[in-house]
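Example record

The entry below shows one chain as it appears in the dataset: sequence first, then structure tokens.
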Amino acid sequence: MDDRFPPQRRIVPLAAFAIGLIALACATSPTGRSQLKLFSDQDMAQLGSQSFQQLKQQQKVSNDAEINAYVQCVADALTQGLAPEWRAGWEVVVFEDDSANAFALPGRRIGVHTGLLDVAQTPDQLASVMGHEVSHVQAHHGNERMSQQVAAQVGLAVAAATTDSDTTAGRATLAALGLGTQFGVLLPFSRSHESEADLLGLELMARSGFEPEQSVVLWQNMAAASGGQPPEWMSTHPSHRTRIEDLRTALPTAGALRNAAHENGRKPDCKPPKNSP
């Protein structure tokens, strides 16, 4: 350790930087939850678009016209439930992949794996998944997740500046701080993102005229398909049981939104592929 720069002096600029980041980047999610956002919407959109382009080059894109038309139909109907400034400009791509997955990226990019259609067996169930993913984008969860990681790295740097990593005790302290950051901060925040996207996605699909009750069926299908899960406290996602209970609690509000959408003529009519389950 260099005695010319004692821990107390090394920590000051790092701590000041961390405090400045938090002070400048405070935001609020659509549900009123406090957020840390260090990146601009333009930067995130550019990053999302670049990542999506890479995925299209690296993964096989489906050329099944029937499946593509079906997924596009659900996406078009779903985005009509968004605020006007969010409705246009969504690119939707179906990837040949057996995993039951979908994703959305900043820059208004949506990817759907063909394997998802084995689990999301109706247009309403597919809208539940896609609504969840679009809600991640609307709620700026990608920005928040990256910002949390940057803030965590700064925090560990501050800790390292005051800990003698040359000793066994010092190394153990830094290792414990790393685990504490992972399980006490980053993963719980990720679970909160998932729960928030579940509820926002439920409202979105309902405002678009899809049947919100099918979100519960979707997660029942997911539970049956995925088998066992890690303990919830070690996972980046809530348990299937937690998600289903939370969705059921929110169904009355979502049902009212669905009824209003039907009264306004929003009744999606997307036909699943003939070879779907």
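Notes for this example: The helical segments are 7-24, 41-58, 65-79, 123-138, 141-161, 168-207, 213-226, 240-263. The beta strands are 26-28, 34-36, 91-95, 102-105, 109-113.
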